[in-house]
Amino acid sequence: MNGTYRAIWLCKNETLEVIDQRSLPHRYETMELHNTEETVFAIKEMVVRGAGTIGCVAAFGIYLAAQESQGEWEALKTYAARIRASRPTAVNLMWAVDRMMAILKDSDDYVADARREAIVISDEESQRTQAIGTYGGDLIEQIYKSTGHRTVNLLTHCNAGWLAVVNDGTALAPVYEAHKRGIDIHVWVDETRPRNQGASLTAWELKQAGIAHTIIADNTGGHLMQHGMVDLVVTGADRVTRQGDAANKIGTYLKALAAKANSVPFYVALPASTFDFDIIDGVKEIEIEERSEDEVHFMHGMLDDGTEARVRVTPEHSHALNIGFDVTPHHLITGLITERGVCDATLEAVETMFEDLL
Ligand code: MRU
Fold first, then answer.
1. Is 50 exceeded by the pLDDT of residue 13?
2. Is 184 labeled as catalytic in the residue annotation?
3. pTM for the full predicted model
């Protein structure tokens, strides 16, 4: 399983092809991105989503922008600024654009150098997720051994699999690794309203991989934890501060509170590209995306006759609030699963493990 699938790839005609995640799980469709405008659309409208994938698409978006700007630095800077502003919370987006532009600043050939660097970025991200899989897999294996080889029940929120982070995902990388090691694992999949990334995408990924899973309504996790039905929680992240506060899909914080109250270990899996070392207090300092209230009013799915439909689930004229992310404070996090190992969610531990990147 690990490393088998990619959510994005460069085509022979030098455009970027991406899986259109809006169509899953009912249809597998791809979209070709040719320029800045299409890159911005794909990120904003969540054709592609998940912090890691957004970062890699942004890197290739700069490559497309380099083609479009025809050697004009000012034009390239304008395109880069548009891509950088396409979504606010996932820091991988800003990290990737800034890294690309730092390389291109001193380049004689924007197109060739942008192509090379975007490939390096996605290959490096892919290697990071493999290491996250190994370290997280070790944690799962310890639980498996300590319980005398009974099924390990892991709860996850949103989608942090290979669709979300090139190549193995973050929260799901340890799950894939555990499955590969022959560990009996079962995943509780939070549906993740309003856009249902868990029910639609995580469940789809796990089904493809033949991994046992059960989709649960978002409010079910606390009850399962009270009844000893969750061994650990692992989520991904969109931005993690220097002291280990983690922004992730809305609802993650409530799972962390429930986990703390029930002594269930709560891990956040992330590559270094998801750290924002410039900020400390995530609740105060992380910009949280607010999206259209229509995502709360309407659900998209398949009718009994197999046709797809968008249906309203709220009364007409009621207002809705759609906050995309929340921040789990570091004291609720048991550990950060990174490509360098499992790190305490504290300022000291993060600064020690990532000293060279500060
Ligand atoms: O709004 P999304 O679907 O892009 O949000 C994605 C998440 O919150 C994921 O859990 C997160 O990106 C972790 S996987 C890198």
1. yes
2. no
3. 0.97
